[in-house]
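Subject: Alpha-2,8-polysialyltransferase family protein

B.,
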Amino acid sequence: MTGLFTARTASGLFALCAAVDAGLLTGAPRRILVLARTGEIPEQEPALDELPGFATLASRFDEVIDWSAEIAPLHPGAWAPPRDEQPLLARLLRRSWGLGAAPVELVTDSITEGPARALASIFHDAPLTVCEPGLAAYGPTMGALPGGVGSRVAGLLHLDLVEGLRPLFLAEYAPPVTAIPASSFRKTVAEVADAADEPAVPEVLRLDDVEADGTTPPEVLFARSTPSLVTGSSSALLTAARLYDLPVAATGVARRLEELPRYDHPDRIPLAILHATLPELTSDGELRAPAAVSGDRLASLVTAIAYCMRATVHAERREEARAFLEEIADGPMARYFSRSRLDELRLVPRPLVPEPAPAPDPPLDQRRRRGIRLRRRTVP
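Prediction pasted inline below.
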């Protein structure tokens, strides 16, 4: 048995290594780490194997492969293997990677894009474990998986970023769901943080600036510093709050929610969770209290949004979503739902158009005159 581990992001790589350390995987005798840069211009992304301390992370694996180099000049994030070429590609990769005829299992930090999707199609009978380290774990599966992949999902691993909230990602396939221990994740991040130069972290750490720069993963900054406040609009905010006990505030989340180009955008639930649970730092520096939605209430909100995003996938949640929408009608949480989307799903009755009232009878003298005219016309 050989385990193929795919990683596209630093947080995904940290989570994979943490899962290995925590004994959450089957322990294949041989492990291969497949790295990929899947952005619009992959060459401009920082390479994961250039992270400080990468050699320590890579020590958990027997071999590291650059997926971009394997399929060049094709785009590593967009390429999908044609169905009729998949058996040939499987033979080529087995020969190139020294897999022989032994069984293969996949452990990925994504299944909807990049090398994970391609490898799941090529190795058509390999069991699959998905490791989702961000808030996307709490949203629905976006897009259709390659044929037969759903039946091979063996488990979902995630970071427990929202207390008491159960992931909906891949829920239609009912995989076992396991949280990666926070201590294992922090230990993995520390391996990179200890090898990195001392970061210059401002008193207010703005994640939007950190992620735009891209050279240092936010988790490394959380491990090496104690800013007075962490701000932004990404999943890393809750990583800072839940795993590193840092004070956080959301910025620009409401605007980003309004600007999403379609209701089923994959960022909708992560942004809604941030908006509903975290304080907001306004443009004038005011710290505004959150809606403080938590527990069952937050679960109902997320379920209703997920149903509206992927109604055909989560059809069994329709009545639950309807009940919640009726409960919050005209309240502050109604902002998370598009009226046009609710109308499309017939979750909110359209206003009834009253039938036109019958025309009133004409006055009596008018009816008499009509009768006289009618009789005159019928006289021979």
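Residues 359 and 367 are 14 Å apart (CA to CA).

T.
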